[in-house]
Amino acid sequence: MPMTRKLFWEDMYLKEFDARVVSADASRLVLDQTAFNPRGGGLVSDVGTIDRVEVGEVVKEGDEIVHVMKAEGSWAPGQPVHCAIDWEKRHRIMRMHTAAHLLSAVVNSETGALITGNQISPDESRVDFNLENFDKEKMSAYVDRVNREAGRGLEVTTFFMKREEALSNPGFVKLANAMPPTLAELRIVKIGDADTQADGGVHVSNTKEIGTVVALGTENKGKSNRRLHFTVRP
Ligand SMILES: [Zn+2]
């Protein structure tokens, strides 16, 4: 079965699209192409509608992207469908995710710490760092620097790179290693001169769209693991 075409990689601003059903059971749909970004890499899944039926979640199952519907429908292979992303939520995910990359770049350059996990949601997000010392003042200094970086209006670009080439670049290695070894090419996301990483998620095209990053608090998650909660405004 051919893989679903990932429209969310081709145009991260695509809000509505037409597709055909490849396979379906009562509430799970696989399409020939989709702009719904599935859950993964710390990002929550997009939601929206397919033929006006609500999409509850979109998940990756092996090579397949499965749209888990909130109601049952009579979907048949080959059937054309019209799909709409909940753009308000998606755009906030894009802003939060790009902010998280800038945060990890800033904290890494200030402390050498690496990101150990993240959860990107429309309303509130969090990033974990392997860091022992992370007080309130330091945190707000990092967030200020992130806002200065974002305010520079950095262009965000994506491209594909051979796996070996990406792995040979020290800046990409930590995440590239987490990618399935079967992938011959990795997708690279570059935020101006601030950050370059192998990454499968959705981003804004210019850091000015992030708005203002606001720290919501920190938490200790183990001896050398610090969690930062944040959001973007307005
Ligand atoms: Zn990312």
Q: In words, what does this structure look like?
A:
There is one protein chain. This protein folds into two domains: about 5-85, Elongation Factor Tu (Ef-tu), domain 3 (Beta Barrel); about 90-234, Threonyl-trna Synthetase, Chain A, domain 2 (Threonyl-tRNA Synthetase, Chain A, domain 2), CATH 3.30.980.10. About 25% of the residues lie in helices and about 35% in strands. The strands form four sheets. A six-stranded antiparallel beta barrel has the order 2-3-7-6-5-8. Strands 9-10-15-14 form a four-stranded antiparallel beta sheet, covered by helices on one side. The chain has a three-stranded antiparallel beta sheet with strand order 11-12-13. Helix 2 (about 85-110) crosses helix 3. With about 230 residues, the protein is of the alpha+beta class. It is globular, with a radius of gyration of 19 Å. The protein has five helices and 15 strands. It has helices at about 5-10, 85-110, 135-150, 165, 170-175, and strands at about 5, 15-25, 30, 35, 50, 55-60, 65-70, 80-85, 115-120, 125-130, 155-160, 185-190, 195-200, 210-220, 225-234. A hairpin with a 2-residue loop joins strand 6 and strand 7 (about 65-70).
Which tags fit this structure?
234 residues, alpha+beta, Elongation Factor Tu (Ef-tu), domain 3, Threonyl-tRNA Synthetase, Chain A, domain 2, six-stranded antiparallel β-barrel, 15 strands, 24% helix, binds zinc ion
Short description:
With 234 residues, the protein is α+β, with helices and mostly antiparallel strands. It has five helices and 15 strands.
Which CATH class of the largest domain applies here? Answer: Alpha Beta
Order of helical and strand elements: EHEEEEEEEHEEHEHHEEEE
**What value does the Rg take, in angstroms?**
19 Å
What is the correct CATH architecture of the largest domain?
Answer: 2-Layer Sandwich
Instruction: Estimate the strand proportion.
Output: 35-45%
State the helix count: 5
Helical percentage: 10-25%
Q: Major β-sheet, in short? A: 6 strands, antiparallel, barrel
Q: Care to count the β-strands? A: 15
What molecules are bound to this protein?
zinc ion
CATH topology title of the largest domain:
Threonyl-tRNA Synthetase, Chain A, domain 2
Quaternary organisation: single chain
User: How many structurally independent domains?
Assistant: 2
- Spans of at least 5 consecutive residues with low confidence: none
Q: Based on Cα principal axes, name the global outline.
A: globular
Mean pLDDT: 91
Strand pairing plus helix content: what structural class? Answer: alpha+beta
